[in-house]
Every structure is written in C-alpha cells, then in structure tokens.
Write a structure and sequence with these properties.
Layout: E1 5-10, H1 17-27, E2 31-37, E3 40-48, E4 51-57, E5 60-61, H2 62-69, E6 76-81, H3 93-110, E7 114-117, H4 127-133, E8 137-141, H5 142-149, H6 153-166, E9 169-171, H7 179-198, H8 201-214, H9 219-236
Antiparallel strand pairs: 1-6, 2-3, 2-6, 3-4, 4-5, 7-8, 7-9
Helix pairs in contact: 1-3, 2-3, 3-6, 4-5, 4-6, 7-8, 8-9
C-alpha cells in the first residue's frame, strides 16, 4: 500500500527550499516535494532515500527542473511520504543546492528586465536560448519571454547574462507613461483583484507588487498590496494555519 503521509508543510519565507531539500537528504526520506502557490503546484520533485530522482517545474523535466525549483516564488512547500519511484539521482544534493541557489540569484537579477536586441553581431544561438532571444522585443520582460518560450530558467540564465555582458542584447528603459507599461499595470491590478476575490492572497500580493514595479508610488496599488498583506497575516495568525513535523 502506498504511503501518503504529509511530513512537512511550511512557507518558503520561513524555511527556504534549499533547507528543505537538505533536510530531506539528511533524513533519507522517500516521497514528493512540492512548491505551491495557493492551489497550484509550481514544482514537483520526487525523492528516493533522500536523493532527487525526478523533477518537473513548468514545462521542464529532469535536472533543469530541479534547478528551476530553487527559483520558484511559491507560498507553500510540502513534503509527503510516498512509495519510491525508479530513476537515477539527478545529481549530488549539495551540488544541486549550491547550483540552484546561484541560478536563483542570477535569475532574480534579470527576471524583470526589459531587454531588446540592438543589432550588434550575435553569436549563433541554438536551443532554449534562441527561443528566448527571438521574443526579446524590448517590451516583454525576460521572465515573460522565458515563460512564452516554454523553456527552463536554468537552461538560459547563464547565456542571457553572457549576451548582456557582450552587448548583444541590452536593457530597454520605457517611460512610465509608455502604453506597454500602462497596459501591463492595469492587467496586474485586475489579476490581483481577481485573486483577492478568490482568497488567493499570495498570488494577489505578487500581482499588486508587480503593479507597483510598473508604476512606482502608485497609491491604488500600494493600498491593495497593504490590504492583501493584512488579510494574509491575519489568516496565518490563526491557530493551525501552519504546521510541520514536531
């Protein structure tokens, strides 16, 4: 009979994903680690005796998905004991954690950048990074381009940083009254309100925070961001809102 016992439930703001992964290895646990945002699973990693043997994050599988797991902005991390699944380890756990943390740091540097191709001679691009570069139009952010291309963050972050350093692609600064920024702002506000009505407070917070990035100092976005944080903190303060293994 399959084991289905939840051993750990925590918020990554309190116990980070690298710590959870090392805890699973240290205890030699077998089961499934998920990173979630409200009811949506953003990343799933399956462990056998403390070693990751399978991972999926977005549309990516394998080691790249394992590394992408460290970049995910989720609201909940869970580990459930499950029967072992076959598969070779995705790599040494310590090495994966160190590389995942580096990828996460680099990704956060470029995720919200608006980047365009400037006509400078560019090396021949193949695979995932080629799909991303063809979407860098100076309006979409790097994060949006990567999601649109359906590739992994770990697969392209180093190549994108190299292209930035070489000057083959460059930052594009749009004025605050740019139609593209204004449209993105209103979309983010609408998404935030929708999530708030559904009670998905972490997703709503992310949307209102993006609205503030697009229109710094916007009073309406700031008010909504404050409201959703108060509501979420009130829920977290209730007994039983967060639990983990004793």
């Amino acid at each position: 009979m399959a084991l289905e016992d939840e051993l750990l439930r925590c918020r990554p703001q309190h116990i980070g994903i690298p710590t959870v992964v090392q805890l699973v290895e240290g205890l030699g646990l077998t089961g499934v680690l998920t990173v979630e945002m409200d009811d949506q699973v953003l990343s799933e990693v399956r462990f056998s005796a403390g070693r990751p043997v399978w991972a999926r994050c977005g549309g990516v599988d394998g080691q790249a998905a394992m590394l992408d797991t460290f970049t995910v902005d989720g609201s909940l991390v869970r580990f459930e004991a499950r029967d072992a699944v076959p598969g070779d380890p995705l790599g040494d756990v310590l090495g994966l954690v160190m590389e995942g943390c580096r990828v996460s740091d680099d990704w956060r540097r470029i995720e919200t950048m608006r980047v365009g191709v400037n006509g400078t001679p560019m090396p021949t691009l193949l695979g995932p990074v080629a799909k991303v570069v063809e979407r860098l139009n100076g309006i979409a952010t790097v994060g949006e381009a990567v999601r649109s291309a359906g590739v992994g963050r770990a697969e392209v972050v180093d190549a994108l940083l190299d292209l930035l350093t070489a000057g083959s692609i460059e930052l594009v600064e749009l004025p605050a009254d740019s139609p593209a920024l204004i449209a993105d702002y209103y979309e983010a506000m609408e998404v935030g309100r929708s999530y708030l009505r559904q009670g998905h407070h972490d997703a709503a917070e992310a949307a209102f925070d993006r609205a503030l990035v697009l229109q710094p100092g916007d009073r309406l976005a700031a008010q909504n961001l404050k409201r959703v944080r108060v509501l979420r903190d009130d829920i977290q303060a209730r007994p039983g809102a967060l639990r983990s293994v004793p």
